[in-house]
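Troubleshooting: if your tokenizer reports a length mismatch, compare your output against this known-good record of 229 residues.
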Amino acid sequence: MAAKGVLAVIPARGGSKGLERKNLRALGGAALVVHSIRAAAAAATIDRFVVSTEDGEIAAVARAAGAEVLARPAELAGDTVRNNDVVRHAIGAAGKGFAYVVLLQPTSPLRTGHDIDACLAPLLAGEAKSVMTVTPVEHHPAKAVRIDAGLVVPYAGDVAGMEARRQDLPRAYRQNGAVYALAIDDFLREDRFYVPPCRACVMSAEASLDIDTETDLAAAEQALARRVG
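Known-good structure output:
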């Protein structure tokens, strides 16, 4: 029987350099990791989701929120460990019989089940090899420069773009880190989440808030209040 179904992985290690114990910090009365658990549970496209952690407190909070917890080996809990390796471990432990894998990072707490479903729709319809959520860039990449021996050089080599009015430039987007999804076979073969052709699901700047600092957390608190207010 061919594999089918979607496995979502929520990586939530205990350590964090930028914001201490980040995944347990409260947002709208719930730990940060809980918001991703709720989104995964609300998404019709997710058949199974796991929280990958090495931390006992995070594991307890995740289970209390209704999540299945996958014990992460200590060697996958360091500062330099890639999400790729965490997801690969989760696939080996919980992905048997599943065709697709989804990465849901807890640092994107304003992503909803609707966002997940909208992002996965083209993947499940066979219209793409991978999908990701994006948001409009704050500053257009045509305006970016690098410094070479003290001299300013257009980062993309586009002199005309540096001089163009913002309104005349094509719209540009960036990854927001909220949702990545692709076939498990493609992920294991390519060891990356971007496999072309890749489709995008555009999210607003507010919904795309990424939590790395106290300022980010405060902004997310305000955004969440506006959403439920």
